[in-house]
Specification:
Blueprint lengths: L29 H10 L8 H13 L7 H17 L19 H5 L6 H14 L4 E6 L13 E5 L5 E2 L3 E5 L4 E8 L2 H4 L5 H27 L4 E4 L6 H7 L4 E2 L5 E2 L7 E8 L13 H7 L2 H4 L31 H11 L5 H4 L13 H5 L7 H11 L18 H4 L1
Parallel strand pairs: 2-4
Antiparallel strand pairs: 1-5, 3-4, 5-9, 6-9, 7-8
Helix pairs in contact: 1-11, 2-11, 3-7
The structure holds iron/sulfur cluster (2 copies).
Length: 406
């Protein structure tokens, strides 16, 4: 992981309109609303029906990159995701909030170590279980979902995390989020929107499950509480921003210094007293204002070419945070037509590939050529071995930017 110390954000990483912002209910996710429109049923998986119809057609018509063998690779990659947590249903399968296999005598007494020692141990364990990046933040309750499909998430003054008929209850003592990123295979991602790009995501989900479940068991065996989460329970991207893993991009994804948006995120919530990391600013916000590559290559027109706003663009957005909102419903409709997930907005992002600071428009126009954060990160990517892909393009990005500047 590239040292973050040189990129600590000097100002708030979010602008939030407190009069508008509310915790997000899972019922507003595109997977739920699109599936409900298609089938009348409420769930995460009902939007897949139409995707499966296209998939069968793709196989029958021998569409390149969408053969039965391509789909078979994807099914295998997705297996552990479905076994462990199925993208994340809170407190279910192996994502259960109670210890899975930890004997009572290990759970009873907490390891006697200071926060620095515990933080070192947790980060070491995260890497051991498959995480490529790890950051820790105070758990901001605004990022906890307001509700899942049927039940509210409620914060309580005491007790253990548990579920009742109506609620998921998280005690205030669970005040840390360990945010874990697993890198995806960029060679597969670059085939988007063909099936191998979906396979990279599926493999990412499976690895997320293994990493989050393993880390939760590790923490429990040291006597602390742990809630392993995939996409469930809380919004991963703002937690990752808070934990210093990266910045939010125009494509609605976390852009990390090491892998750009080519990662998947999961998290473990805990009461272990851990030291926290700081948010970073390495210039993504400015860069995305001028770069439109993801928007230009989005087949559904879901990515904004405009400015950042506090208001959303569709029913699936949660307004109140100033950012580029994605039309998630349109994105998912394209997945259905495509018969597979899409990752164009990851594949084309300069930070997924071999971005070099000198390719930035700012090098042509601004007078901070040798000292900006993007230059520093580009140098560190090469130094720490993250600059493995060929450069994303020899053309200075500024030549692509005329539309953004109009
Ligand atoms: S996944 Fe594809 S369709 Fe969806 S926002 Fe990204 S580029 Fe657009
Ligand atoms: S492709 Fe360009 S605009 Fe889109 S997220 Fe990446 S850097 Fe930002």
């Amino acid at each position: 992981m590239i040292p973050r110390s040189g990129h600590t954000a000097n100002k708030d990483v979010y602008e939030i309109d407190a009069d508008i912002y509310q915790r997000f209910p899972v019922l507003k996710q595109a997977f739920v609303t699109v599936g409900q429109k298609d089938t009348g049923q409420i769930g995460i998986m009902f939007s897949l029906g139409k995707m499966f119809e296209t998939m069968a057609l793709n196989i029958k018509e021998c569409v390149p990159g969408k053969s039965r063998i391509d789909y078979a690779f994807d099914a295998g990659a997705n297996a552990m995701n479905l076994i462990l947590g199925a993208y994340g249903m809170p407190n279910s399968q192996f994502l259960r909030w109670d210890p899975l296999y930890i004997p009572e005598f290990l759970r009873e007494k907490q390891l006697d170590a200071d926060p620095s020692g515990l933080t070192t141990l947790v980060k070491k364990a995260a890497g051991l279980y498959g995480s490529d990046l790890v950051g820790i933040t105070t758990l901001d309750s605004r990022w906890i979902y307001e509700s899942d499909l049927l039940k509210l998430f409620v914060l309580a003054d005491e007790g253990h995390p548990h579920e009742t008929d109506k609620e998921f209850v998280i005690p205030h003592s669970v005040n840390r989020a360990i945010v874990l990123a697993v890198a995806m295979d960029m060679e597969l991602i670059e085939t988007s929107p063909q099936v191998p790009a979906s396979t990279a995501a599926s493999l990412g989900y499976s690895r997320m499950g293994i990493t989050a479940v393993s880390l939760a068991e590790f923490i429990r065996s040291l006597g602390f509480t742990a809630i392993p989460c995939m996409n469930d329970t809380a919004l991963s991207i703002p937690l990752a921003v808070d934990a210093g893993l990266g910045e939010l991009g125009r494509n609605g994804l976390l852009i990390t210094p090491e892998y750009g948006p080519g990662i998947r995120l999961c998290k473990v919530l805990t009461d272990m007293p851990l030291n926290t990391d700081k948010p970073v600013d390495f210039g993504i916000n400015d860069f995305c204002r001028q770069c439109l590559l993801c928007a230009e290559h989005c087949p559904s027109g879901a990515i904004s070419t405009g400015s950042q706003y506090f208001t959303g663009v569709c029913e699936n957005n949660n307004p109140g945070v100033k950012k580029w909102y994605i039309n998630a419903g349109e994105c998912l409709r394209f997945w259905q037509k495509n018969g597979a997930g899409c990752a164009n907005c990851i594949a084309v992002c300069p930070f997924s590939a071999g971005f070099e600071g000198s390719q930035c428009v700012k090098c042509i126009r601004c007078d901070t050529t040798n000292s900006c954060s993007l230059q520093a990160v580009a140098f560190l990517r090469a130094k720490h071995g993250y600059l493995k892909a060929p450069l994303w393009g020899t053309k200075p990005i500024s030549t692509l930017l005329t539309r953004a500047e109009l």
